[in-house]
Amino acid sequence: MDTLMNRTLRILVALLIPLVVLTGCSGKTSSPSSSSAGTSIPADPSGSSSDAAPIDQQCPDSNATSFAKTKFAGHLALGFGAFHRYLYKPYQAGTFKKGADGRIVAFVKGGLSALFIKREVRLASEDVKASPALCKAIAAPLAKLGDTLEASFDKLKNGDASGITDANSLISSIETSSSQNGDPIKEDDNADISSNPK
To answer: Which PROSITE patterns match (predicted)?
Structure first.
C-alpha cells in the first residue's frame, strides 16, 4: 500500500510541476481570458546523458548472457506499451490537437513517456546483444527507433504527427522480427513512466 501511495505521489508531482511552472513562475498576473499559459505546451522533462547517447548496434558471434532475451522482451513490452498508451492512442483520439480537452496533460505524459520509452529501448538494445540472430534482426531498427522517438514527440508539439506514425510502424516491425526469432513481445501499458532512470 505504501509503494502504491509513493508511486501515485510521484506521478502527481511529475504532472503538477510543469503546470505550476506554466501558471506561477512568470511573476505577472493576468486575467484568464488574456493568459495563454493554459494552452501552451510544457517543456520536455530532461533525461540522463546516457538516454541521449547513440545506441550501439554491434552484435556478438555467440550467445553471451543468460536471461538477456527475457530482459530484452520485458524492456520492450514496457516501452512499447507506454508508447501506445501515452502517445499513439492520444494521437489517434486527437488529444494532441490545439484546443482539445486534456491536451496539456497529454503532452506532459507524452514527454515523460518519450523519455521512458527511449530508456527502455536503450536497455533492450543492450540485452539483445546476447543473441546473435536476434541482434542482427533487431539492433538496427532499435537504434533507429531510439533516435527518432524524441524527434517524433518534438514534431508532434508542432502539429506534425508523421513521427508518431513512423514510430508505430517501426515498433510493429520490431515486434514482428522479434516474434519470428522466437521472442514475442507482449506489450504492457502499465509502466511507471515517472520512475527514475535505471
So the answer is: PROKAR_LIPOPROTEIN
